[in-house]
Specification:
heterodimer; A: three-stranded mixed sheet; B: 95 residues; two-stranded antiparallel ribbon; Amidase (chain A); Glutamyl-tRNA(Gln) amidotransferase subunit A (chain A)
Chain lengths: 485, 95
């Protein structure tokens, strides 16, 4: 059952070949047996999942429900879920039970009828590229358990790649959907900023954060993203415009598609084996009728420095809410109010979160604001303008998702800068707000390689169409890691 | 730009973070490296470029001034570390 696509699962459920309860039990059993090797789930919600599966079965029996009804999913532990711990992989929220549901939780679970299997591991407050900053321990990559799955959505990708969930939600502030998808042979999409509601998604950097999905194919991703997307009055940055049909256009031909290859994404620093896989994908897309143009995104080398001003600045403000008073960890050692704040935050946040809060505090502090924050906001516009110009010439931009395949656990934990450079190809899309996705395009030494597609604002359907057409003529995305077949 | 452990302690104070003293030295080195990376921005030519705070050039949406949310004080206080009589408790502020 865990090798079937979302479409096949939906058809089988509606044809009553098996029930949602049976399907959900199958996944719960796999989680119990296999997840101890991976640590992809922080909380497994077996009882709630089975109750939701029964409710889905009842809907299906009445001839109700939609294409996703009864298909279970995993939720990244950044989305608030009523009655179930939402930890954000932090000691700060280890005992936090949200009094409300995130909008996407409502849409996927209550409305679409997807039972939640549990809450997925991640980097603490989504800050990391390896899933090693989690309070609940690192997640292992199912393709090689001595390697990282990428981050911050490491639990989401490990669970889907290992068949411990048919699909999972994820979030992407600087590459946290795409880089882990690339490292685990999955298809992951970060939609346009404002396309999916951020209500109930714990904030890291509010002008960059966007929710999306990781799946085993573009077709699977399209169906789930369709159900997540849409205007939400509860999110002040949600876009009030209709959601395109993401599923129907998947089958369109890509004959005549204009693809841009940014020179800066193929410069020094890109591993030769990864490069070879990307070149192979370009060849396949040419056979499908796409035309390629080299172009330049001249400011893209500045995207990492820009991000490491903007994101920590926003994070230091967002995380100021954790004060030990209203919810979250409260130190037992505090003798006065100031100590209550300092000790609760000192004990509750791990080192990477503390580093970013301090960078954010520093770049926003008196005397440094103009040199760092204001300058970063100006460079952000230059990066945005690069994309605007590029999309006057091409329909999509193609490049690598990551410089190399998954690295060893612990290899970069003491060197934040080398960790940050993992996201060199992914950050620009967040700064500009455009949609971007990663999809499998080969293997190097048995480890998956991902390619990235970036599109113009609200062009999710086009990206998914290109990815789906590529997946009709290639089989990379159908490969599963040994031991988890 | 490099920061000394003393400067790190100052920034931590501003951020209301109690640092583990054994980590201050490492933080100073790491944050200095990050600021060095960020320092590349100073070379960018940004004369006449307007700062971009947000990817969507949108203005703040306004809604009608109507009550939309029910009172959830009890639900919110149920998850607080310490409350009494509907109030959040903190250590004594005024002697």
């Amino acid at each position: 059952m865990h090798t079937l696509s979302i479409k096949q699962l939906g058809e089988a459920l509606r044809a009553r070949k098996f029930s949602s309860r049976e399907l959900t039990q199958h996944y719960l059993k796999r989680i119990e047996t296999l997840d101890p090797q991976l640590n992809s789930y922080i909380t497994v919600t077996a009882d709630q999942a089975l109750a939701a599966a029964d409710a889905a079965d009842a809907r299906l029996a009445r001839g109700e429900g939609g294409p996703l009804t009864g298909i279970p999913l995993g939720q990244k532990d950044i989305f608030c879920t009523t009655g179930v711990r939402t930890s954000c992989a932090s000691r700060m929220l280890d005992r936090f039970i949200s009094p409300y549901d995130a909008t996407i939780v409502k849409k996927l679970q209550a409305e679409a009828g997807m039972p939640m299997l549990g809450k997925l591991n991640m980097d603490e407050f989504a800050m990391g590229s390896s899933n090693e900053t989690s309070w609940y321990g690192p997640v292992k990559n199912p393709w090689d358990v001595t390697r990282v799955p990428g981050g911050s959505s490491g639990g989401s990708v490990a669970a889907v790649a290992a068949g411990l969930a048919p699909v999972a939600t994820a979030t992407d502030t600087g590459g946290s959907i795409r880089q882990p998808a690339a490292l685990t042979n999955l298809t992951g999409i970060k939609p346009t900023y404002g396309r999916v509601s951020r209500y109930g998604m714990i904030a890291f950097a509010s002008s960059l954060d966007q929710a999306g999905v990781v799946a085993r194919s573009a077709e699977d991703a399209a169906q789930v993203l369709q159900a997540m997307s849409g205007f939400d009055p509860l999110d002040s940055t949600s876009m009030d415009r209709p959601v395109d049909d993401l599923v129907a256009p998947l089958g369109r031909s890509i004959q005549g598609l204009r693809v841009g290859l940014p020179r800066e994404y193929f410069a020094d620093g890109l591993d030769a084996g990864v490069r070879a896989c990307i070149d192979g994908a370009i060849g396949e897309l040419k056979k499908l009728g796409a035309t390629f143009t080299e172009l330049s995104l001249p400011n893209s080398p500045l995207s990492v420095p820009t991000y490491y001003v903007v994101a920590p600045a926003e994070a230091s403000s967002n995380l100021a809410r954790f004060d030990g008073v209203r919810y979250g960890h409260r130190s037992a050692q505090a003798k006065n109010l100031e100590e209550l704040y300092e000790k609760s935050r000192g004990e509750g946040f791990g080192p990477e979160v503390q580093r970013r809060i301090m960078i954010g505090t520093y770049v926003l502090s008196h005397g440094y604001y103009d040199a760092y924050y204001l300058q970063a906001q100006k460079v952000r516009r230059l990066i945005y303008d690069d994309f605007r110009r590029a999309f006057e010439q091409v329909d999509v931009i193609l490049g690598p998702t990551a410089t190399d395949v998954a690295f060893k656990l612990g290899a970069k934990t003491d060197d934040p800068v080398s960790m940050y450079l993992n996201d060199i190809y992914t950050i620009a899309a967040n700064l500009a707000g455009i949609p971007a996705m990663s999809l499998p395009c080969g293997f190097k030494d048995g480890l998956p390689v991902g390619m990235q597609l970036m599109g113009n604002f609200f062009d999710e359907a086009k990206l998914l169409n290109v990815a789906h057409q590529y997946q009709q003529v290639t089989g990379w995305h159908t490969q599963s890691p040994k031991g988890f077949e | 730009m490099s920061l000394s452990p003393e400067q790190i302690r100052q920034v931590a104070k501003l951020a209301r973070l109690e640092l583990n003293p054994s980590l201050t030295e490492a933080y100073a080195g790491q944050i200095s490296n990050i600021l060095e990376l960020v320092g590349q921005l100073s070379a960018a030519r940004t004369e006449g470029v307007g700062p971009m705070a947000h990817p969507l050039e949108m203005t703040q949406r306004l809604r009608a001034d109507e009550v939309t949310q029910p009172d959830q004080r009890e639900a919110f206080q149920a998850i607080a570390p310490a409350v009494q009589d509907g109030l959040y408790l903190v250590p004594k502020v005024i002697e």
